[in-house]
Amino acid sequence: MNAFSTIQSDVSPLCRALAAELRQIGTIVTGIAHNVMGDEDFILNHIESFQQFDLVIQSAEETARVLDHMAQGISGAQAVDMVSLEAIQQRLHRACREAD
What does the buried/exposed string (b/e) look like for 54-87 if buried means 16 or more CB atoms within 10 Å of the residue's CB? Predict the structure, then answer.
């Protein structure tokens, strides 16, 4: 299988389940971030660390979308093309090139 292949239909349910798990992780991290946001001093003292919450949430969602697209029969390379966060897209494209 290369980056331009589509996954077999028997793997589609697993891709969808993995996507759901990643979204659940994002939901948990969002909840933690909201709890921490109540402490203004914490936010001001750790703004860079706080921004990592957002990065984890976005990364989980982007990865889940790739899996969803692949579960729908879209090739890995095409699914990666749809990733909106450039750093993630570059890492995933690198992985696709390694698969070829």
Answer: eebbebbbbbbbbbbbbbeebbbbebbeebeeee
